[in-house]
Amino acid sequence: MDYVIQELKTLFSGQNFEKKRGDLLFATLDTGVLVQALKHLRDMLGFRHLVLITAVDWIEEDLFQITYLLRNYTQKTDVGIRVFVPRSNPIMESIHTLWETAATYQRELHEMFGIDFPGSPRVNKPFILEGWQEIPPYRRDFDTKKYAEETYFPRPGRKTHDPETYMKQKLYPDGTES
Amino acid sequence: MTQPILFIALPLLATFFTGLTGKRYGKFQSAVMNLALAGTVLISAYYVSAFVSGTRQPYTASTAGSLPPFSIAFRMALPEALTLLLINGLGLLGLSALKTTFRQKGTLSAVTYLLYFMALNGIVLTRDLFNYFVFIEISSVALAGMVLFKESGRCLKAGFSWMMATGVISIFLILSAILIYVRTGALDIDNILLTDPLVLYSGSAGAFFLFLALIFELKPFPANGWALDVYENASPAVSAVFSGAGITAGLFALYKFLPIVGDRWLFPLIIIGLVTFLFSNILALKQHIVNRMLGYSSVGQAGLIAAVFGMGVLSKEDMFFIAASLMAVHALAKGGLFWLSHHTGYTSVYEWAGIRHKPLFIFLLGFYIFALLGFPPFPSFFAKWSLISALAAGPYGWMMAAILLGSLLEAAWMIRWFGFAVKGNEQTANEIQKTPPVYTLVPALLLLGLILLLNRSRFAFILTNAWIPLLFITGFFLLDFLPARVKNTFMIGGLGLYFYFLYPTLTEFRLIFAIIFLLGGMILLLAGYHYKGRRIGFYPSSALMYSGLVGLLTAGTTVEFFFWWELMTLGSYFLILRGKKSLPHALSYFLFSMGGAYTMLSGFGLLAAANQGSLALETLSSGGPFQAVIFILLALGFLTKTATVPLHIWLPGAHSEAESDVSPVVSAVLLKAGVFGLILLMAGMGPQSLGRVNLYTALGWLGAITALIGNLSAIFEEDAKRLLAYSSIGQLGYVLFALAMMNHLGWLTATVFALNHFLIKALLFLAIGGVVMRVKTRNMYEMGGLIKKMPLSFISVMIGIIALSGVPPLTGFAGKWLSYNATVLSGWYFQGVIINFAGLVTFLYCFRLIFTIFLGQLKDQHRQVKEAPFWMMVPQIILMGVILFISTVPNVALKPVGTFLTRYFPEHALVWDGPMARSLYGYWNGYMIMLVTGVVFAAVFFWLFFINRKAVKIKQFNIVFAGERPSRPELTHFAYNFFAPYQKALGFLVAPVSTDFWNRLSEGTHAIAGFIARLFSGNGQSYVIHQILFAVLVFFLVLGGI
Amino acid sequence: MTFHWMQLVYALVSLFIVLNVGLIIQGIVRKIGARLGRRHGIRWYQLYLDLFKNYAMRSAVSHGIMFYLGPVFRLSGGIGLFLFMPVIYGSVWFQNFSGSGDLILLTYFIFFGTLGMALGAGESGHPYSAIGITRGLSQTTAAEIPLILAIIAIAVQYQTLSVTDIVAAQQGGILNWTLFTNPLATIAALLGFLGSMMRSPFDVVMAPQEIPVGPPTEFHSNFLAVLQTNRAIFPMAKTILYVNLFFGGATNWPVLIIKVFLLYMWPVFIGVAFPRFRVDQSIRWFLRIPTLIGILAILFI
Amino acid sequence: MSNDDLKKRRVIGPDGIEFEVNPMEDYFCTERPHPESPANRILEKFFNWARSESVWILGYGTGCGAIEMRPLMTPRFDAYRFGIQWRPTPRQANLLMVSGYLSVKTLKRVIRSYEQMQNPKFVMALGSCTINGGMYWDSYNTINRLDHYLPVDVYVAGCMPRPESILAGLEELKKRIRAGKGEGANAYIENLDWYKANQKKIIKDWDMPDYNW
Amino acid sequence: MITITLTTGSLLILLGLYALLTRDNLLRIIIGFSLANTGVHLIIVSFGYLKNRTAPILNDTMIAAGPETQIVDPLPQALVLTAIVIGFAITAFLLVFALRLYHTYGTLSLSKLVEKS
């Protein structure tokens, strides 16, 4: 794995090259070099499988983190590449040219986070949320509970409990712990 | 009082006078020239009339009052007079074509032209060998001069080669003259012939050289490159006289001098002639330059006529008739064609599409081409007939084969040309604005005149039986300017009258087929009312075809039968050619038809030979020793027409590409001509076997295989009309199978199948044609759901397919029932199984036809389609009525058929008990079936209708689609590659084996043509080498003891 | 053959009998199938319930006139086939309308309903219907070949195409049945019979998971009820034809019902034992062994 | 399957004339359904008995409930003996069995399938998710109560209900049918506006005629 | 004598034909043709020659002596005159063609002419 870190470090600009396990490493790269880096990983270092693309909404930093997880089947190792795009203008380069399956992930990210991948096939078509009109639901500023209560006719009489206190109460009604 | 010398003197005088008036070619000069040639024409016409009426006897005129050898003798008799009339007539007409040339080039060019004709006249008239040489040289030089009318380098080269080659010929000729003179002491034919033949012929070099010279004048293959270059490069107006008049004179010289050469040279002459004929036409196949093609044709025709001169088997009278007809037709038609070419100015075949919109051009082109090809009613047709008949009497099968093969090849390239002119790619052509000038019409009129002149004695039926139909046809040619609807009315009325008058005279099968041909034709013609405008060319062609069809019924002799057969082919070819993309298909239809017609012709020839020249159709029963061969030859002819595998490949294209109201005619009506022929043949000739093979068993298997292949091909077809066309192949396979059984039930089956095929295929083709007319596509997967827009058409198709697939209670079932009975009766179990399997396959394509077009999802673009035109529906409704009527009371139609069939096959007839038919094995009551089915159907229908009366009418996308909704009709309509599993399982059966075979054959022929064509390099020297090698070859041929 | 009004009454009676027999036999057959799979299975009268229920559906939608006519064609085909068949040998009245035509009529009348149904299903505009029909038609044509061979074989054997005469020739003992006098033809026909009964391994036509029930995808309510009625009559009529041709016919109703039941079990047995063929596979299969047996049957008459 | 397919479009016919196709009207039936009144009482009783004993199921397997439906066909539970069968097409089925949570997207399909069934028709909903949203009660995309969108005849509670409880639910349904209470189809049609309003509230891209025939 | 002329004539013909076939220059071809023509004329004349006879000029003595035994055959001589004229005409025509070809293509080589289309 170390040589992967070495190569990535020397060839591409980025930070946080960290080895999580013996067979898993993560790195944060600059958005500009991402495609090249993935191409290099795929063609030179044998990470032929795009496992997934996912995103995290760092609302505090005003950033979206996009993670690309790749797998090398001969060495049984994984690499995760992170990039950050600004929340205000979330545009990322599409990698469907490298892996056709990426188009589907990108479509999902577009729908759920509103991250745009220009040029990705069918990226603007509704995927799961047909006719969605709110802000993308996976953004942390979207209030799911409020939306559900307003929209989906909650059945009256439903009680909600704080799991911690409720379970404590239920399992140890006398208040004795352990 | 006239003198033969005038033929020389008049042109010479005119030459002098015009020469004296200076270089400018003005009105005066033109008048003089015209007068001179008109004078010769008049004189020859006078001689012809005098000889024919007998007021003058043939005589010889000598110059200077002395006798040969010290003077030149001109002989004047009927052959000479006719030839001169032809030559000078062409010369007179040719003047008009060259008028502008003369104006540009001055008087001298005109003088050359006159001198050429003077020389040709001399060649015809003179009896003197040396004199012949002189005239030959004058004509050669004059022609070389005329080649220069067109100023191009190629012309110059061609002219130089020409002069070189002629020079060599002149050496041969003069050598022969002197050698013969040395041996016989004479130079004129009559005196030479007086000498002892032994002296003359005993290996005489003179005869050899004379023979060579005569042959070279006719440009034998392959030593003819120089002439072809001239044909190609000279002005077509010059080629016209060169081909028309020059070849005629050359042939006449050959005819005249051949006795000197002697019998020993006749056989080589035949070989050379036929080889030339065959190979010229092969070579023409590869050509696309019209003038060169016509050159090949001229050379080939000359070869054919020369071969005729060599055929000792022909009686004098026959030979005269054949040669005269062929020569006259060739001269006039070739002249006409060259003039057309001159007038259009097109060089390549592809450019000829430019005459598309000029009916007169098209008419003339067709007229000349079909005259050349030997189509009725032109004299060449009778000449070909007589030739083949005469050859059939002896062991000359190979000659027949060569002639017919050559004719077929000739037809191939000529028809391709014609096709390009009528239907070729329009983009490549500049349209021509002019109409053809009058003089190009004259040869056509003369040809028409010839029909009457030359056929009077031998083929009297033209005048006695055929004049009404021929008048009918001519009428439609003349009335072609009328609106289509008027002509349609005339046509329907004409056919009706025809039927009215014919009805009392026809019996048995002839009556059945008359009903199909005439009444069927009338019903189908109703669809013609839909077309507006004039529809130029449709009605003359239809008239040709219908007259031909009816002629088949009334024909009493084989020649009559063949006459009408050819007319029918011609008419149907024109009709098929009218389709938008039918060019290649019409061509293949025509070629297959011609091939079939030629085998038929040989069969008839052999038949006549076996019956001492008797031509009556009744002689079919006495075929002599060649009975089986005759049977096969004739059967081949008819089987081509019924599109039996492997002769079927023409049908799908031809039938599908034809116009909407032509397809039903060619399919439902025309194919029956072949069936009629087969019936005639089988009834006439009875059981046949070749060696130990029973030919009828072979035919039965052939029918079964045809049925299977045809039907299987139909189910894999995406094109609705092609599907129907393949289905026709299959249906006619049934008919053939049933006929071949040669028993009562078999023939009854065949009759029922034929009638059904007529009714059903007419109905289906009309219905589908109406749909295609509306939706403008024939691909079934592009249609769908049209039932909502065209309910009547749908009903037509539904009735049609139920009847076609043989499901009771409709009429198709009668055929199935009979075929089972006949199968069991004749013991043809396995063929019967194949036939019935083919019948089951019918379901597949029937369903495909109705489903993919009418059911399923209606397409966007068809949402505003209207029902098929009214006039397309009218015949469909009539046909549906007939089908339902016959289905209900089949006895009305079948009982009379059965009754007269007992005359042929008295055993195992059906017993009719009211509507109930009983065979040896089973029974069938069409009325009862219809009744029970109808009652049950009505009961269930009303029951369902009652309980379901509240049903909500929904639309095409309201279907269950796994919770989704359909988005576009195209994606929801299952139509393409409909029977994929079948393809996977049985697709190998319809591998295009026959198509491949025929394609390879045609490619091979083209490859041969391309290979040989390399001989003609355009180099004069190599042409001379060809000449010399040819001479050597002939020398060894003759010495080799042939 | 003259027509009597009584004929009509008897025809209706026999039709009623065969409808009930068909429903019950099929119910029992399904029960047997369930028991083989260790299930309790449906009640024997379940098919009646289904039929009633479907006739009792309150609403229906229609895709067009042919959508109506499809089931009508189908049921008329079934009823017609039955009515054109001599049912009970020796009975004057239960000959129905068999005087209208012979064996050939019956073999071709089978297609009357098929073709009509194909048209009705086509009108529904559902692609699965069309796919199902192409499969069905393709397979049927191949399955008919052994049958045709067998029919020709027995026609030659008995020198007649009349079903009544064929039955008559088989009377007088079990050994006179075609089954024993011409076993090859019988085998060929029985193999062909498999293909026409739409049971496994030849049921890819309906393929419920792939092309939901094939041709009748869109048929519902009363339309479906009519089709169900036919499904009770039509296989019975076909089976009766085979009984007549190969198993000596029947001289009374009980014998007929027993024979029909036993013969009906034949495709059921095959069906529970074998998985499904694709269409091209079944075409090839029919054109191999059964066709060969049929050819042998003709050769060894 | 994009919505563009349902917009009006200009089409050129075979004869060259251009015209407009409106798929919503041309390809779909826009008629409003109407309630079907029962037959007379005695006949209806007989019919209801037949209906209750011949329930043909259209299984809508969205969630974990689809797993629980399969055992019903096995020898252990053998629903066939109660006259219950599965049909592959809504047209021929009587009972729509919704087997779990429904997202907005699947709800659309469920509604279409339901409307394509013929009157009388019944709905049975399995599991808590269809009752009150279950564990997805606060999801942005999962409905909470099915009965606001379709007339449910029987709810079977559980997460998931076992086959036994489904059988019990079916028995309950049979009782309802026999009692003449299985008029959900008519109820749906009579209250069509309310149902449609609810449906349209969450299905924002409603691109169909109101009723799917 | 006759043998000599006949042989010469034949040789000339062959020579001429050889030239006609093998030379590339148009003029040489024409010359070859003229040679062959001359050979033919020689042959004609030699055939007409009869030993020990005189020219066919009729005068009184000749008529008295019986011309058919005294003079050579006059016919070939007449023929050869015509033949020469015709040969001249053909040669002239060939030359005209050669000249025009030269004007058009600028060459007299046959092989080059054939190549140019």
Summarize the entry for a quick read.
The complex is a heteropentamer of chains A (178), B (1042), C (301), D (213) and E (117). Chain C has 301 residues and is an all-alpha fold.
Q: Helices and strands in order, then pairings?
A:
The complex is a heteropentamer of chains A (178), B (1042), C (301), D (213) and E (117).
Chain B: H1 6-20, H2 27-53, E1 59-62, E2 73-76, H3 78-105, H4 107-125, H5 129-147, H6 153-184, H7 189-194, H8 197-201, H9 205-217, H10 225-233, H11 236-261, H12 266-286, H13 290-310, H14 316-344, H15 359-372, H16 379-392, H17 397-423, H18 438-454, H19 461-464, H20 467-478, H21 484-502, H22 508-525, H23 538-554, H24 558-577, H25 583-610, H26 627-641, H27 650-657, H28 663-685, E3 689-690, E4 693-694, H29 695-715, H30 720-740, H31 744-775, H32 791-804, H33 812-826, H34 829-854, H35 870-888, H36 890-904, E5 911-913, E6 916-918, E7 923-925, H37 926-947, E8 952-953, H38 969-972, H39 980-986, H40 993-1013, H41 1020-1039
Antiparallel strand pairs in B: 1-2, 3-4, 5-6, 6-7
Helix pairs in contact in B: 1-2, 1-4, 2-3, 3-4, 3-11, 3-14, 3-18, 4-5, 4-11, 5-6, 5-11, 6-9, 6-10, 6-41, 9-11, 10-11, 10-13, 11-13, 11-14, 12-13, 12-17, 12-40, 13-14, 13-17, 14-15, 14-16, 14-18, 15-17, 15-18, 16-25, 17-25, 20-23, 21-22, 22-23, 22-28, 22-31, 23-24, 24-25, 24-28, 25-26, ...
Chain C: H1 5-36, H2 46-56, E1 61-62, H3 65-83, H4 103-123, H5 127-158, H6 163-169, H7 178-181, H8 183-196, H9 221-246, H10 253-273, H11 279-299
Helix pairs in contact in C: 1-9, 1-10, 2-9, 3-4, 3-9, 4-5, 5-8, 5-11, 6-9, 8-11, 9-10
Chain D: E1 9-12, E2 18-21, H1 23-26, H2 41-53, E3 55-60, H3 65-69, E4 84-86, E5 95-98, H4 104-116, E6 122-126, H5 127-132, E7 154-156, H6 163-178, H7 184-190, H8 192-202
Parallel strand pairs in D: 3-4, 3-5, 5-6, 6-7
Antiparallel strand pairs in D: 1-2
Helix pairs in contact in D: 2-6
Description of the molecule:
The complex is a heteropentamer of chains A (178), B (1042), C (301), D (213) and E (117). With 178 residues, chain A is of the alpha+beta class. Chain A is built from five helices and five strands; from the N terminus they run αββαβββααα. Chain A has a single domain (2-156), classed as NADH:ubiquinone oxidoreductase Nqo5 subunit (Beta Polymerase, domain 2), CATH 3.30.460. A five-stranded mixed beta sheet of chain A has the order 1-2-5-4-3. Chain B is an all-alpha fold. Chain B has 41 helices and eight strands. In chain B, the strands form three sheets. Chain B has a three-stranded antiparallel beta sheet with strand order 5-6-7. A two-stranded antiparallel ribbon of chain B has the order 1-2. Chain D is of the alpha/beta class and 213 residues long. Helix content of chain D is 35%, strand content 14%. Chain D is built from eight helices and seven strands. In chain D, the strands form two sheets. Chain D has a five-stranded parallel beta sheet, sandwiched between helices. In chain D, strands 1-2 form a two-stranded antiparallel ribbon. In chain D, α5 links the parallel β6 and β7 (154-156). The two termini of chain D are 19 Å apart. Helices cover 79% and strands 0% of the residues of chain E. Chain E has helices at 2-22, 26-48, 60-65, 67-70, 74-105, 110-115. Chain E is mainly alpha-helical and 117 residues long. Chain B binds chain D through residues 774-777, 860-865, 950, 952-958, 960, 962-969, and chain D through 1-2, 5-6, 9, 11-15, 17, 19, 21, 23, 26-29, 31, 33, 36, 89-91, 108-110, 112-113, 116, 208, 212-213. β8 (952-953) of chain B pairs parallel with β1 of chain C.
